[in-house]
Specification:
By secondary structure, the protein is an alpha/beta fold. It is 40% helix and 16% strand. The protein is built from 13 helices and 14 strands. The longest helix has 20 residues. The protein is globular, with a radius of gyration of 20 Å.
Length: 409
């Protein structure tokens, strides 16, 4: 189903501040072996050095030098197929704290297997040494799971990244929620696409995602911003990866539809999908067909780019965002598409997992309150190695939305 959206967000007011674009000076490219790594990237474009280079080789400790922690923290993420960056972020925390961080995953088909998600969290909470649990992404069933755990462990601290459930409801149960600022991104993504030359913007999603308040509002803001900038907004209903066709069916649809849209609207068409599993085929098809790709649903150099562009990221390179961005830049340039692909300079999935784990730790020890905006922002900036913009959702002191600047390849 396809439809064109008109301006519907006047009631929400103009979302401020366009994404500031960092220009990255070309970096020397160290060749990557093409080993079939799940990631895959394209070329980065230009880069302004910060006090700390965003995402440069990381400080995660090896198991032999794991930092001491007098209690345990549980971390639940998706699998590699549904959310690799969050999964890798959990691995990094396990390396930092050794067996004091316990990691589990929720099922790929989380919509129909919510009992499994609940069981995983109950299993974590059954360990009396676990004092806090980080969940990212906060898929449907998270609130029910928190309720179940709190029946047995009312003192358990929960930090939720990228919650899918209603912000007003999750705020009643999680101690802290962190998410990308999808309301502001409704403007910044469109403004970035316009800056990159887009005349049309194609938005792929499906009813399950559009039932989420922030995603639906972001789509409406995108439509309104397109109208203001004289761009056409096209909303396309794609298959839900948790539906009958599964992720392969959703990916096949993307690979087949992108050429159709470019044939209809021209190469100055920008593409966006709300689903993590669609990013790799979307990047690949947009690059092959000459379109524009301003940003992923979860912005990151490692989200979809490595797999789409055939770049293997392994060993010490896995945490070096500067190196990965350089590899992306080279691939985009090879295709003659420089200036038409972008993302954030670091993985927001990894950043939020790291920040959430550290905040959970400090919440347990009483070092900070999980409603302290300054402390929360500082922890996210520490994990990102870059400045972030952060605001609360409608004044809630335990639900924060974050925004980073963009990198054009």
């Amino acid at each position: 189903m396809r439809f064109f959206l008109s301006a519907t967000t006047a009631a929400f007011g103009r979302v401020a501040a366009a994404a500031l674009v960092m220009t990255l000076a070309p970096l020397a490219l160290t060749p990557f072996a093409l080993t079939g790594c799940g990631g895959g990237e394209s070329k980065t474009s230009h880069e302004t050095p910060a006090a700390k280079t965003p995402g440069s080789a990381d400080h995660a400790a090896s198991p032999a030098s794991a930092e001491a922690l007098p209690f345990k923290i549980g971390v639940m993420t998706g699998t590699v197929s549904q959310g690799e960056d969050e999964y890798r972020g959990a691995e990094r925390m396990a390396k930092r704290y050794g067996d004091r961080v316990k990691t589990v995953t929720y099922p790929d088909n989380f919509m129909t297997e919510q009992e499994t998600t609940i069981a995983q969290l109950l299993n974590l909470a059954s360990d009396s040494e676990v004092k806090a649990i980080v969940i990212d992404q906060g898929v449907p069933g998270t609130i029910a799971a928190i309720k179940k755990v709190r029946e047995q462990r009312p003192e358990m601290i929960f930090v939720v990244g990228n919650p899918h459930e209603d912000p007003n409801q999750i705020s009643q149960y999680a101690n802290l929620s962190l998410i990308t600022d999808d309301l502001k991104r409704g403007e910044t993504i469109i403004e970035l696409a316009h800056k990159m030359g887009a005349k049309t913007f194609v938005h792929y999603s499906f009813p399950r995602h559009m039932s989420q308040e922030l995603l639906a509002r972001r789509r409406d803001i995108m439509s309104t911003t397109c109208e203001k900038l004289g761009m056409k907004f096209v909303s396309i209903n794609a298959p839900d990866p948790t539906g009958d066709q599964g992720l392969p069916g959703a990916q096949k649809f993307i690979l087949e539809d992108v050429p159709r849209e470019i044939s209809q609207y021209g190469k100055d068409t920008a593409f966006f999908s709300t689903n993590c599993g669609m990013q790799e085929p979307l990047i690949r098809s947009v690059l092959d067909n000459g379109g524009i790709f301003p940003e992923q649903c979860c912005p990151s150099p490692t989200h979809g780019y490595p797999g789409a562009l055939g770049i293997a990221v392994a060993g010490e390179d896995a945490g070096d965002m500067t190196h990965i961005r350089s590899a992306i830049q080279a691939k985009v340039a090879e295709k003659g598409e420089s200036g038409r692909f972008a993302t954030w300079p670091v993985s927001i999935g990894i950043v939020l997992i790291e920040a959430a784990t550290e905040l959970a730790k400090k919440g347990v020890t009483g070092e900070i309150k999980l409603t302290d905006a300054a402390a929360i922002s500082a922890e996210i900036e520490k994990a990102a190695g870059a400045s972030v913009k952060m605001q609360s959702f409608e004044g809630k002191d335990n639900y924060y939305m974050v925004l980073l600047e963009s990198v054009i390849f």
